[in-house]
Amino acid sequence: MASVNSEQWRAIYEKFSNAQNLTDVKSLNDPRNDPFRSKYQARELLREIYCSLKSFDNVSDRGLEISEQPQEEAVDGLRQDVSTEALCGDSCEGMRVAKLAAVEYYLGVNHIDTEELPAGQEHLGNCISMLEKCTVTSFNVSLIIHVRNQLGILWAGYDETEKAQDFLEVAESNYHHYMKDDGSPPIDMTDYFCAEENMLTHQERVRRFELAYTHTMYYLAQVYKNLGQTERAATYCHSTLQRQLKLNQYNPMEWALNAATLSQYYITKGRYLEGRHCLSAATVISGLAADIPSEAAAQESEIESERRETLRQKRSEIARCWIKYCLNLLQDARKLLEDNIGELDSDRQDELRNSRRRAEEEEEKGRKSTLLFDSDDTFESIASLEEKVQCLFPLDFTEARAVFLVGQNYVTQAKEYFQMDGYVTDHIEILQDHSALFKALAFFEEDVERRCKMHKRRVDMLEPICNELNARYYLMIRRQLMFELAETYNDMMDLKLALANRQDDTQSLDSHTIKKFNHLCSSSAKFFEMFLDSLRSPEGKMPEVLEEEVLRPALVARFRVARLHSRLISSSPTVQLDNLNKALENYKYVVQYCEAHPEAGAAVEIELELSKEMAGLLPLKINRLKARMGSNN
Predict the structure, then answer these.
(1) Does residue 175 register a pLDDT over 70?
(2) How many domains are there within the chain?
């Protein structure tokens, strides 16, 4: 049998070191026309290492046979500074099997990196098969977790999510069992092929092992998300981010963007404490990815210029997440405080205010039970930023305005990058969120005139954009804007009507007020009709069957147009008659469409009921008006 000597091991050490250098360093500079040149060279070295290991002690199908040499000599080069008791099953065979399995692992990763997935899968499968014959020990547990991570990624890429889940959950179990049963810093695979003086330190072994498990948690978060297990996915994502901070092993902007994305999940669940914490951490950590000093900007390379642009973009994306936080907090507060007609319920407001003290006490308890990002270097900065925006529901205009101003500040930041020139869709979405912030704030404002001014701000920011957009390329966005503008004008009209109702009758309104009221009615009707016109065919015909995504908006628009025409104020009987006939026509459309398509009625139950009522009443009103007009003639 072949004898293993130090020269043979030195040759293996050197080849492995070269393979690692080719993979991690030289491959970064490979030419575009030969992008995998270094990795192909690394593969050949790994194959040579594999052949050398197979030749030692005449490896059989069941693994590597034990040399007839005295054990101490046979272990030379395999054991390095690891005690025999720490090895797989206390056997040299286990050590050799683990080393062969490690080469299979590196070959598998190499093939995957060079886009040869079937070959990569085969090598990783060989690695798993070898390791299944061994007991999990400090010598092989790191390799076991790494290979299962890779197979999890591979199967996830094939959309075989449940297979990926199996590999990753077993890796997670391996980690927990090992930490419970042993817990000592395990051997890293790179130490299999290093001279003793080059082996990793105790601290580095701990770091690498914990990082491997962090990757397991990260991949499981993705798997659970794809399986629709959102709560579980969020928990794993949060723990992953926390571990990355603790290990100081993360890319600041990537970490920050992941934390900001996680905040959106918490916001949708009404967990604003956690959402605010994620966003505060994202903002602080993103600041660690410093821009290039201004004095060096003129001489920066193209790569650095792209990097700076990427930083700006991602910070703007974090700002957009802050906007959503503020907007959702205001909207959820409104849901708690509004009465059955959508106005502020003062009794409910007092009730919630009285319970606020208890809520603030519970906030601190909730904070202690929340997974916080407690990095020593950033904790104070994160806490300081959190203090600038509340996570409890605002109960009055002053509190709501404080949340609004935070959101508006981030709107300004986001628009600096996502400008209309180059980012049309993003820019408009930010404007829509800004408009929604004003709408949410207006709910808390008691003064009707000031509420009208807030809605006017919404009109001023959205109407020019709506008129400028090309309908051919931005049809869906224009429809959204048209409908929102129509509803905004409608809200303003309702507010003016509320003021008018304080008068004895509409006849007491002066001509200026009537003109303003009619302008708001007509503007709302105009944008609702523009929305309906966008549904027409090139020949100008409305579709016989409305598509599901526009069914409710289209029927609501018809109902609103009818309502608006019936409310227009005019001293001319002829104009009144024309307006009433237009109102009747639109009410009838809603009724007739729902009669022809009964399933549509469920989408507009309230509007349908009122349309039926008005379709019955308006003819009587029209006939009375005609009679008066006839008698006057």
Answers:
(1) yes
(2) 2
Residue 10 lies in a domain: yes
CB 326 within 8 A of CB 410: yes
Dist. CA 284–CA 286, nearest whole Å = 6
Residue 329 placed within a domain:
no
Per-residue confidence band for 305, with pLDDT thresholds at 50, 70 and 90: confident
Residues facing 63 on adjacent strands: 60
Q: Coil, strand, or helix at residue 589?
A: helix
- Judged by average pLDDT, the poorest of 63-72, 371-380, 563-572, 597-606 is 63-72
Within-domain flag for 265: no
Interatomic CA distance for residues 413 and 404, integer angstroms:
14
Residue 484: inside a domain, yes or no?
no
Q: Specify the residue for token string 């989408």.
A: 603
C-alpha distances (whole Å) from 24 to each of 9, 19, 60, 490 are: 22, 9, 33, 62
pLDDT score at 505: 53
For the stretch 382-415, pLDDT in tens is 888 999 999 999 999 999 999 999 999 999 999 9
For 74, the domain range is: 6-249
Cβ-based burial of 42 (10 A; exposed 0-12, middle 13-18, buried ≥19)? buried
Residue 154 and residue 124 in contact, taking contact as beta carbons nearer than 8 Å: yes
Beta carbons of 304 and 312 less than 8 angstroms apart: no
Q: How far apart are CA 356 and CA 359, in angstroms?
A: 5
Q: Which two tokens stand for residue 191?
A: 């130490």
15: Cβ–Cβ under 8 A, 6 or more apart, which residues? Answer: 45, 48, 49
Last residue of some domain: 221, 249, 277? 249
Asked if 223 contacts 165 with a C-beta cutoff of 8 angstroms, the reply is: yes
Q: What are the tokens at 115?
A: 């886009």
Q: Helical H runs in 60-201?
A: 71-74, 92-113, 117-131, 141-157, 161-181
Cβ neighbours of 348 (radius 10 Å): 14
Q: What is the CA radius of gyration of the chain?
A: 34
Q: Say yes or no to pLDDT of 566 above 80.
A: yes
Domain limit, last residue, from 198, 229, 249: 249
Measured distance CA(233)–CA(227) in Å, rounded: 9
Task: Please report, as a single letter, which amino acid is at residue 579.
Answer: N
